[in-house]
């Protein structure tokens, strides 16, 4: 009899938390408290990923709000102004394409894959106005070859994520040329206190980070995490945490260079070539410039091909300001501090096309025209 009572107590002790958890899951699911959050976490464009931390959502066909005038204060306040919308279409692999991409290129087809962050993705611009799409237009039927330009840009990706993305997926498409533009998220808006790009990815996809990612599939845990994040955020504001300094904390420039060298080597091992781009932005900060300088140093020290877009944008911006445009974005070249407008994307596309059509002439001409 005593034994039976003990067993019953154990069953109640073990069963009660499980029943409570199941009831909680049902209540939270049925009320839809997390529904909107899940749909927009990390964003309407991005979903969590166990390898890369996050990646572009597949099978999108939607209008996305375009925001400008983002300001960060020490109190973590954000000032966002919506300035229209832009259309985003992605295929089943999360490439910003309205078509599926076969693994094998067609006969007499030269395959270019554009890899990078939100600049390559074309944040703020429609699919047809991203630089990879415009590059495809510039190269159409040139030299008797068919050029297939693929937009594999992933907003928020740093150099390590780009390397992983190529190793795990893009190499299977065997690009003749991989065009790479990354760096913003190695030094800004992505490191957030992590010592390096690699450390960020590893901490969020292995160990405790991997456990948290799995637990977010449960409604109860996700709601609890959201509540804790709000409380932590309010405490940070209360104690005057300097969010601006934290978000601007740079990662390792040396590691950034290592990732690019490794990427170029692996592409060449698969009979392709790499072309790297510096990334222009409105605010020329020392941290920002250090990554672009590192990329240019690689070009001079090793057999790595680089197009420096920064002076091209600087000159064009000076011309536009002289003609009456405003320096502060949104302007003719930038939606915000980082992302080019369709005009900026066209400059990138035409510059790459000019380089591909006549590399020697391009390098001899400092204007890139």
Write a structural description.
- With 369 residues, this protein is α/β, with parallel strands linked by helices.
- The protein has two domains: 2-31; 45-193 and 247-364, SGNH hydrolase (Rossmann fold, 3-Layer(aba) Sandwich), CATH 3.40.50.1110.
- It has 15 helices and nine strands.
- The protein has helices at 2-31, 35-39, 118-121, 131-139, 159-168, 184-187, 197-205, 208-215, 219-238, 243-247, 253-269, 286-301, 310-322, 342-357, 359-364, and strands at 46-49, 53-56, 61-68, 81-89, 109-116, 146-151, 177-181, 273-277, 305-307.
- The N and C termini lie far apart (92 Å).
- Mean pLDDT is 87; it is low at 70-78.
Our Rg estimate from Cα atoms comes to 24 Å
- The percent range for strand residues is 5-15%
CATH class of the largest domain: Alpha Beta
What is the H level of CATH, i.e. the homologous superfamily of the largest domain? SGNH hydrolase
Mean pLDDT: 87
Q: Uncertain runs with pLDDT below 50, 5 residues or more?
A: 70-78
Order of helices and strands: HHEEEEEHHEHEHHHHHHEHEHHH
| Structural domains: how many | 2
Q: Which structural class is indicated by helix and strand composition?
A: alpha/beta
Question: What strand order characterises the main sheet?
Answer: 6-5-7-8-9
Number of strands: 9
Report the end-to-end length measured between terminal Cα atoms: 92 Å
Helix content: 40-55%
Task: Look up the CATH topology of the largest domain.
Answer: Rossmann fold
Largest sheet geometry = 5 strands, parallel
What would you say the CATH architecture of the largest domain is?
Answer: 3-Layer(aba) Sandwich
**Count of DSSP H/I helices:** 15
Coarse shape: globular
